[in-house]
Amino acid sequence: MRRYVAIIDAINYRLGRVVMYGIFAIIAILLWSSISKTFFLPSLWTLEMAQFAMVAYYMLGGPYAMQMGANVRMDLFYHRWSDRRKAWFDAFTVLFLMFYLGVLLYGAMDSASYALEYNERSNTVWRPYMWPIKLVVVLGVTLMLLQAISEFFKDVARLRGVTL
């Protein structure tokens, strides 16, 4: 468990630290979109590219946010609980998250395989291939699932009085 947690946490930490600077790419794309619409002929690719960049930013940054505890919690009672009770609750609820991510991964893989098999393209004027962003979604969901398993292992370790 220690090795798994160390490897997955290291991968998601490093990738998250790199992906967090993707917001500047999104800003640059949207800035170019505004400038081109104001002063030149509008660029056809900018808004869809900004959407793709935002999907990549969100999907690849999610595991890092989970690892850092930056996700939003409904904290009506949780803050008053003991660390042991929090670990029990977290270990139980992360099972639902893992089920959801498993279903999401199944759908993402099916969608990505369809996009690869049939060279699916967007229905916009720019018509980019869809498989690159769908593969990013598959990678992001896979990393999120691996991070959820890592968090489960950390919760189990906390229940046993061990720090991972």
Task: Walk me through the structure.
This protein has 164 residues and is an all-alpha fold. It has one domain. 75% of the residues lie in helices and 0% in strands. The protein has 5 helices and no strands. The protein has helices at 2-19, 22-39, 46-68, 83-117, 131-159. α2 (22-39) packs antiparallel against α3. The radius of gyration is 19 Å and the shape is elongated.
What's the mean pLDDT score? Answer: 95
Distance between the termini: 8 Å
- By helix and strand content, what is the structural category? mainly alpha
Order of helices and strands: HHHHH
Beta-strand percentage range: under 5%
* Structural shape: elongated
The radius of gyration computed from the alpha-carbon positions, rounded to a whole number of angstroms, is: 19 Å
Put simply, the count of helices is 5
Strand segment count: 0
Low-confidence segments, given as residue ranges, are none
What portion of residues is helical? over 70%
Biggest sheet statistics: none
How many domains would you count in the coordinates? 1
